[in-house]
Amino acid sequence: xxxxxxxxxxxxxxxxxxxxxxxxxxxxxxxxxxxxxxxxxxxxxxxxxxxxxxxxxxxxxxxxxxxxxxxxxxxxxxxxxxxxxxxxxxxxxxxxxxxxxxxxxxxxxxxxxxxxxxxxxxxxxxxxxxxxxxxxxxxxxxxxxxxxxxxxxxxxxxxxxxxxxxxxxxxxxxxxxxxxxxxxxxxxxxxxxxxxxxxxxxxxxxxxxxxxxxxxxxxxxxxxxxxxxxxxx
Length: 233
Fold this sequence. Notes:
There is one protein chain. This protein is α+β, with helices and mostly antiparallel strands. It folds into 2 domains: 3-70 and 207-227, Pseudouridine synthase, CATH 3.30.2350.10; 74-205, Pseudouridine synthase (2-Layer Sandwich). The protein is 22% helix and 34% strand. It is built from 6 helices and 14 strands. The protein has helices spanning 15-27, 66-69, 105-114, 136-141, 180-191, 221-227, and strands spanning 3-9, 41-43, 52-59, 74-82, 84-86, 95-97, 117-121, 130-131, 134-135, 151-164, 167-174, 195-205, 208-209, 214-215. The strands form 3 sheets. Strands 1, 2, 3, 4, 7, 10, 11, 12, 13 and 14 form a 10-stranded mixed beta sheet that branches. A two-stranded antiparallel ribbon has the order 5-6. It has a two-stranded antiparallel sheet with strand order 8-9. The longest helix has 13 residues, at 15-27. It is elongated and about 60 Å long. The relative contact order is 0.24. The model has no long low-confidence stretch (mean pLDDT 92).
């Protein structure tokens, strides 16, 4: 079987957990016509374990299409918590109180608009970016100094959804390579309150939509056959 499979990743699963689950289901079924003990399954961009939403998986010979599909724009639903920072930029890290200041809704909206367009962004040290041949998060967890150069990204749109202090929810449309954790930390600095990302939900990757994704609980050879598709050239 060759094609694209959209999966709704649950919280607590790594992207590789999902890849492994799909690979196991296909390898043990009649869908594995390759004769290989490990059916080829790849992804076009990971989600952190605490994040949920759309994963675009490539099956069989479609794994060769990965380079063309890893640079797609993405849309996320984001929740950030004001007043604190986190060592990892999300709910997993150690928290530090920064300020009890409560920005107005107009101040929050203004900050969101500040971070639109083409920007330079420094990725978080707890990321999979390689620094001198090693993953940044491994160096950070080992207590080593990590220096990551800023990179050019584009934030096409930030749209406030709800605000009830200390929680802000917004939708963001970004270019590939954008780190929402870094965006949230920058927003916290601009507002003077500190902030970390408490929830992240990916709804679109390029033309692929979460509404067409299968859940991990429903993965089966029959469901994969019914859901996977070939991309129209």
